[in-house]
């Protein structure tokens, strides 16, 4: 019985010494608290594509290009939405983007393309 009490006391000491310290395995420290303008545009472009709101999508595509998103980046965003919102909405998003590109070309606004695609 005395041996059981000693073992249980040792077990309790070990238990409390191990679990009395705060566990920080789930804490994520981030220096960036806000999204960049490009990231906000990516979110808006994907959400309007998913909703099928082509009028607002056209506006956001223009604003995304003005914010510094490149043409190939926007195409990739629209292509990746098909897995989440379906192929027809993704295609309509791409068609809307092609209209935006044509409008910008006719207005004489230069479209920036990606020069290199980095594979990670």
From TrEMBL:
A Pfam match: CMD
Q: Which InterPro entries match?
A: 4CMD/NDH-1_regulator (IPR052512), AhpD-like (IPR029032), CMD-like (IPR003779)
Give the Carboxymuconolactone decarboxylase-like domain ranges. Answer: 30-93
Per UniProt, what is one GO molecular function of this protein?
A: peroxiredoxin activity
Q: Which domain of life is it from?
A: Bacteria
What is the name of this protein? Carboxymuconolactone decarboxylase family protein
